[in-house]
Amino acid sequence: MKLYSTDPNLPNFARPEYVAREPDLVLIEDEMIGTRAMHARSQTYIRKWTAEKTPNYNIRRVCETFFEGFGRTLSAAIGMLFAKSPAIEWNQSEELMTAHWDNIDGAGTNGPVFIKRFSSSALRAGLSVIVVDHPSPPDGTQVVTADIEAAFNLRPMWRRYDRLHCINWLVENVDNVATITQVTLVEPSTVRVGDFGTKTVIRYRDLRLVSEQEDGTTKRVATWRLRQLNEQAGTTPTFSDVGTGVFKNRNGETRSTLPIAIAYTGDSDAPMEGTIPLLGVAWANLAHWQLSTSLRFNSEVAGFAQPVVKGALMSPDGGATPASLGVGPLVSVQV
After folding, report:
1. 101: exposed, middle or buried (Cβ count in 10 Å: 0-12, 13-18, 19+)
2. pTM for this entry
3. Fewer Cβ atoms within 10 A, N terminus or C terminus of the chain?
4. CA-to-CA distance for 326 and 334, rounded, in angstroms?
């Protein structure tokens, strides 16, 4: 099932800039996974010769393991970047934030590990996004006390999104500043199936600023809506609502901007756009694997005798029709 659409009326609409960049991002993700991913998508990366028989091609395209040069380059870059732990200036938030730093995302990831993964995501794709949310207190809560915070785990939660998961966005001029007023983020999520199984479903989180009237004035409010892609056989996707809400702080106050932070590592001249700094390394790594694949296959073929049939060059129908010669791997020539 396709994860995005080019229909601007659907929640999974992908901007043309994303569609144009996606093949490079997928190549990088495949190289980061390694041999299994490259073999699974080898028909995209390994050319099939015109006269090559399909069984031979299916052997050739997966005969060589993938040397993970891109991943090693990225790992070395991140290692140099974090040779020393980053210094943090807490200012007035130190007392509050140090308690959250050891579990910054609510899933057990401490701050330094989260930032290192975020930096790796941004460096390999050119940009990466962090969304910070704060759970709402229970209905009817007038004052959020320390006991209520502890009981309901009311604290900021950071979540990282790779560039591949940021499929569309809108930029508007707000107070003479180019501001992202809407962005859609893809969220693969795991749900239960039966008593013991699980499956992955695709959800789309729509963050947007909406205008509301309050005391005769118009203000912007940051909102979110989560929809799930339904399983179906048709061509037009359908979606189910999972939830909606408004971004608020611990005191119930709404935000006038989206709670996102974007790190750019490539050249950028517009929000959510930018070059991929290590793309040349990814292409060089792909070229190395393509060449290694051909050399590996040829060396294995050379280990077996190739029969040669001597005689007149025969036409396919045995008559006067001129014969043709096939050129390519494992093609025998009758002479």
Report:
1. middle
2. 0.84
3. N
4. 10
Per the structure, the complete domain to which residue 225 belongs is given by: 16-290
Question: Does 325 reside within a domain?
Answer: no
Query: Nearest 5 degrees, angle CA 205-CA 209-CA 211?
Result: 140
Q: When comparing pLDDT for 246 and 286, which is higher?
A: 286
> What gap in Å lies between CA 322 and CA 221, rounded to an integer?
76
CA Rg value for the chain: 27
Which residue in 206, 104, 216, 200 sits closest to 160, CA to CA? 104
From start to end of the chain, where are the E strands? 127-133, 157-162, 166-174, 177-193, 197-214, 217-229, 239-246, 260-264
Token pair recorded at residue 139: 């209905």
Residue 28's CB: how many other CB atoms inside 10 A?
A: 26
Asked if residue 28 lies in contact with residue 70, where contact means CB atoms within 8 angstroms, the answer is yes
pLDDT digits (tens, 9 = 90+) for 138-173: 666 666 666 666 666 677 889 999 999 999 999 998
CA distance 45 to 43: 6
CA 92, 94, 96: angle at the middle one, nearest 5? 100
Amino acid identity at 275? T
CB 271 within 8 A of CB 169: yes
Query: Is 109 part of a structural domain of the chain?
Result: yes
| Angstrom distance (rounded) from CA 26 to CA 34 | 12
Backbone angles phi, psi at 207, to 5 degrees: -100, 130
Q: How far is CA 280 from the centre of its chain?
A: 18
Q: What is the mean pLDDT of residues 11-36?
A: 96
What does the alpha-carbon distance between residue 285 and residue 299 come to, in Å, rounded to a whole number?
Answer: 21
pLDDT of residue 94: 76
On whether the CB atoms of residues 296 and 305 are closer than 8 A, the answer is no
| Residue 76 falls inside a structural domain | yes
Question: How many structural domains is the chain composed of?
Answer: 1
Above 60 in pLDDT, residue 310? Answer: no
Within a domain: residue 328? no
* Range ranked top by mean pLDDT from 129-133, 154-158, 311-315: 129-133
Query: What pLDDT score was predicted for residue 286?
Result: 98
